[in-house]
Write a structure and sequence with these properties.
The protein is of the alpha+beta class. Helix content is 31%, strand content 38%. α2 runs parallel beside α3. It starts with a strand and ends with a strand.
Length: 203
Amino acid sequence: MTTDTYLTIQEEAVATFKDKGSKFIAYAFPITNESDFKLRLEALRKEHFNAVHHCFAYRLQPDKSIYRSSDDGEPTGSAGKPILNQLLSKDLTHVAVIVVRYFGGTLLGVSGLIHAYKEATRMALEAASIVEKIVYETYRLEFPYDSLPAVMKLIKDEELIQEQQQFDLSCSLQIQVRQQQSAAIMAKLEAINGVQSEYLGRY
């Protein structure tokens, strides 16, 4: 992979692992932010209201700098960490896994729990389609109307993604630029008469 790409999953996948009567249902799904995760967790808590645990882990950002895991009442380190370790081993980000456990009446012990949560997560991720995505940076451009032809020609030549455009005496639009190319392309844009840019973030 190049430095401005990352691996994630395309769609939600579900897998079930059973051990000594306990059932572990793993839901692996793509997320763009923590709100996405919280909504899915809330929905699964309602759907599986009889389950004893809803353990999870997730990673966010192209550089994988945001991550969290939870044992949700299981012994410390027996659930959230094994789930997170599977995300780490596959180098995935913008992905969450929630494992719902139904207790089967027999204690599995910490090692048994670690194995169960690891296997349920592994199976769900194996069932998912792993894809490589490009990291884009978003900028807002503002410029006078007479610079519009030059700006639009450069956007077309560089095949940039444009959105939220407004063309009047003063023009503005947002563009998405591949991270590796952003410095060179933004230098070209800012060399056009009257063009000012504002960095809005990356995803």
